[in-house]
């Protein structure tokens, strides 16, 4: 009792001694956490046509989703945002006229297809809440049939049985921070809970007897952190659940069944610096991919257990490889020598057709279907490039900058010819620079076809995308360098980018003006660049960014909290580190103009994160602007809102960096 009382007193003293700016200023998340007057006050304003029209033109340059083909190879279903919201479309043959099969204002995507090719399983969200529902629709089109869609609940498809009747889905409808698995009969419309317990669970794979078609074993995964996983195996016959791998390890694993009973495929960085694919059998790991200085980003084995497709993250470029599932010998794939990225999409349940995506810096992604039986490659989807010559798009150039502790940060740089300073093209002064930090923080900026970068390049900016420590693709030491309080050691990567650019990108002795931009974790990076490292950047735009790590962790959606705590730190145990890493702690240093953009329905970064720092800026009379989209969540999904979000960002940087 005395110890508990003492701990409570210490916590209370910590709170009372904390600066006002870092104490909790709000509670809850979503539109309901704000009063209507606040939403109305910060609603986005219209922009003139000369600002929006160039943005609309670039956003019209797009490619449909990678797509999913029916088992007979005669139809493809894919997502497309051409109506302004992501919806599902159908092609009745390669490069045929597309037919829209879903509509409305809510984003709808393909979750799966029954093996007989008769039905689609669709996921539909409402206004960016990220609490999607699950629906059924005939592949011939028609009305959607509700399976489950509940307010505040994430209903996610997990597996579709070979009988094309039984499906499995997960939902956090019992506890907000935990998910359970249900079995659902598409004919009787009845659901049965088959798993329970604490935590975020999903079905990683199902072992099916290829002779009988019976489901014999289930592989269940449980998240224990932002990257770490535990896996358990359920035997259908014995009804026994057995721990398989990851228990008490806090290790990163991705697991699927191999071709033979008792054999598993495991992707992990456990035994080296980079992720590698292993065969796991009799509790022994045997590598089945070469040892290279690059991460294997992902892998998949087809349902017939014939082929394993895996992707290599080659410094941000995606390289696709294939090996036989039994011998692990290399299998030839179609070659695309000029591609920046080659992606593998879905493989049909019968193992015959696989969707491939190919992207270059000068063209949106193209979608192909590869027929493994005939070895024929057919392009199914064509990108849209109305009124835009994509051959003039800037190509990312890989450069780098040094940090104060001797590390080298890779950056992708987009420049127009007008911003290339050379003897053949001498510039009177440097073009202004925008440094764009990616989200995650485990994300990665990659080269390729980049509409977003091109918008700023067209407007006369140099667009820079760093992969600071904490980013994917450079090994586990790089990825984990910013975990918890260690972030204090590497957060200076944000300032070091500006220091390098100001020193090395001068023209005629003139230092370029530099802006900082980012969304999600990138938005947090932008706020840190403007506060803790005030003076490093001449203007900043934070989109759905975190202003206070403590209030963020206390108010983010419950199912995300445990995953984010493992990356950022615990609000109680690591309280001081979180305070030292929060932009609001340094709000008194902010002196350069700042634009904050937020979705009211954001379940990841609560809208209160934006409002609380805007109030501080208003009190200090710092030039700032807050824009809240009442019908969006973690970023804008509707085309009209995307135009406004980019338009306000571009207009802001033009005003403060070009004038």
UniProtKB/TrEMBL annotation:
Keywords: Hydrolase, Protease, Serine protease, Signal
Keyword Translocase: no
Entry's Gene Ontology molecular function annotations: serine-type endopeptidase activity
Residues of the signal peptide: 1-24
Cross-referenced SUPFAM superfamilies: alpha/beta-Hydrolases, Peptidase/esterase 'gauge' domain
Gene Ontology terms: biological process: proteolysis
PANTHER family associated with the record: DIPEPTIDYL PEPTIDASE FAMILY MEMBER 6, SERINE PEPTIDASE S9 FAMILY MEMBER
Name assigned to this protein: Peptidase S9 prolyl oligopeptidase catalytic domain-containing protein
Taxonomic classification: Bacteria, Bacillati, Cyanobacteriota, Cyanophyceae, Pseudanabaenales
């Amino acid at each position: 009792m005395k110890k508990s009382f003492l701990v409570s007193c210490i916590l209370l003293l910590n709170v009372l001694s904390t600066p006002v700016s870092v104490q909790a200023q709000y509670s809850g998340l979503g539109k309901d956490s704000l009063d209507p007057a606040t939403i109305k006050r910060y609603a986005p304003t219209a922009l003139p046509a000369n600002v929006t029209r160039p943005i609309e033109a670039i956003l019209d340059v797009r490619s449909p989703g990678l797509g999913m083909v029916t088992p007979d190879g005669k139809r493809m279903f894919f997502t497309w945002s051409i109506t302004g919201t992501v919806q599902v479309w159908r092609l009745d043959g390669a490069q045929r006229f597309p037919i829209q099969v879903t509509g409305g204002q809510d984003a709808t995507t393909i979750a799966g297809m029954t093996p007989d090719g008769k039905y689609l399983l669709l996921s539909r969200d409402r206004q960016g809440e990220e609490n999607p529902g699950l629906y059924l629709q005939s592949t011939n089109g028609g009305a959607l049939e509700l399976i489950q869609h509940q307010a505040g609940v994430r209903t996610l498809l997990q597996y579709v049985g070979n009988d094309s009747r039984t499906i499995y889905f997960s939902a956090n409808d019992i506890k907000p921070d935990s998910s359970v698995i249900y079995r659902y009969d598409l004919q009787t419309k009845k659901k049965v809970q088959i798993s329970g317990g604490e935590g975020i669970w999903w079905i990683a794979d199902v072992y099916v007897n290829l002779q009988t078609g019976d489901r014999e074993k289930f592989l269940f995964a449980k998240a224990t952190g932002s990257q770490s996983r535990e896996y358990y195996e359920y035997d259908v016959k014995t009804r026994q659940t057995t721990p398989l791998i990851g228990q008490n390890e806090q290790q990163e694993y991705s697991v699927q069944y191999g071709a033979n009973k008792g054999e598993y495929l495991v992707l992990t960085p456990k035994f080296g610096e980079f992720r590698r694919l292993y065969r796991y059998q009799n509790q022994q790991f045997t590598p089945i991919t070469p040892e290279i200085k690059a991460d294997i980003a992902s892998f998949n084995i087809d349902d017939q257990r014939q082929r394993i497709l895996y992707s290599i993250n080659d410094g941000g470029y995606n390289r696709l490889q294939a090996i036989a599932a039994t011998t692990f010998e290399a299998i030839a794939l179609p070659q695309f020598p000029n591609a920046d990225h080659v992606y593998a999409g879905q493989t049909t349940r019968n193992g015959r057709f696989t969707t491939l995506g190919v992207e270059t810096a000068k063209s949106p992604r193209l979608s192909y279907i590869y027929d493994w039986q005939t070895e024929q490659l057919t392009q199914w989807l064509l990108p849209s490039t109305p009124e835009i010559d994509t051959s003039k798009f800037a190509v990312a150039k890989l450069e780098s900058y040094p940090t104060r502790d001797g590390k080298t940060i890779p950056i992708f740089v987009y420049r127009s010819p007008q911003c290339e300073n050379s003897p053949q093209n001498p510039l009177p002064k440097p073009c202004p620079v925008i440094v764009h930090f990616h989200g995650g923080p485990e994300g990665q900026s990659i080269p390729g076809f980049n509409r977003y970068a091109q918008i700023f390049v067209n407007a006369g900016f140099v667009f820079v995308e760093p992969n600071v420590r904490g980013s994917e693709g450079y090994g586990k030491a790089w990825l984990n360098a910013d975990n918890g309080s260690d972030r204090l050691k590497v957060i200076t990567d944000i300032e070091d980018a500006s220091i390098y650019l100001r020193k090395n990108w001068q023209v005629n002795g003139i230092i370029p003006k530099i802006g900082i931009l980012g969304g999600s974790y990138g938005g947090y990076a932008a706020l840190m660049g403007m506060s803790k490292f005030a003076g490093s950047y001449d203007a900043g735009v934070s989109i759905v960014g975190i202003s206070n790590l403590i209030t963020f962790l206390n108010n983010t959606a419950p199912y995300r909290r445990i995953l984010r705590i493992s990356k950022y730190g615990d609000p109680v145990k690591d309280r001081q580190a979180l305070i030292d890493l929060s932009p609001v702690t340094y709000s008194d240093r902010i002196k350069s103009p700042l634009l904050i953009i937020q979705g009211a329905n954001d379940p990841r970064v609560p809208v209160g994160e934006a409002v609380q720092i805007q109030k501080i800026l208003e009190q200090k009379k710092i030039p700032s602007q807050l824009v809240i989209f009442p019908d969006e969540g973690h970023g804008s999904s509707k085309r009209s809102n995307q135009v406004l979000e980019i338009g306000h960002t571009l207009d802001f940087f033009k005003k403060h960096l070009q004038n």
